[in-house]
Amino acid sequence: MDEHNVHHFWGISPAVDLGTLLPTGDGAADLPVDQPVRFLQVAPYDARHTLTTLSRACRHPALMRQLPPGQPACRLYVWEDSPEGLARHVLLAAVLLDGGVPAAQRGQLLLELHGNAVLRRRAAEYLDEKARQLESLFVGLAAGQPPPAGPEAEARGLAALAALLDLSLLKFQEKDLIVEALQRWRLPNPTSSTSTSAASASAAAAPYDMVAAWDGRCRKVYGGGGCWEQL
């Protein structure tokens, strides 16, 4: 989060296939034989490196090795300065793995969720669905429950995502904050006019006005209302 209370959702460096950073030729002998290759990403602000590395892992023998049971060939550690950043990181990986959506449509959704501040209704509905799936997955993994199984979980990539995620380094409070971030991506639920509870009022709130928020941020960064109107 910067001094304007805005979370960074995009990095400024090109996407890197982390497998290309591994030594090749004679240098490959220096890689651990019985341990996974480990990469640390510090505040990447989006999942570009993770998605690129996952997509191109088959190009690097070191990332496709067969290690003893329970040992993956590669471990990606991601540190973000906000729970929203981690939640979004997992969201983009979940979209990549969602085999229940045709590849072309999945690519469009991935680009829209990654690059746009304002979403189409169709993308917002998909985000709502995916956020609920990820919330259930996070809560289950944090509680030590078995990962999702069955044809639906396999098709939607939830089983694969559960196998990729390791929440052991997160504190309980951090897990709760990630779940809260996922819950904020839900679409508002219609409620009856007679409902007066705080929970119902929150659920019935209007969708977040991103256009007004962006306008307010620009006014704050570039000057007051009078200066902005003259631009």
From TrEMBL:
Domain of life of the organism encoding this protein: Eukaryota
Domain spans labelled DUF4470: 9-119
Alphabetical list of Pfam families matching this protein: DUF4470
Signal peptide region: none
One BP term from GO: axonemal dynein complex assembly
Protein name: DUF4470 domain-containing protein
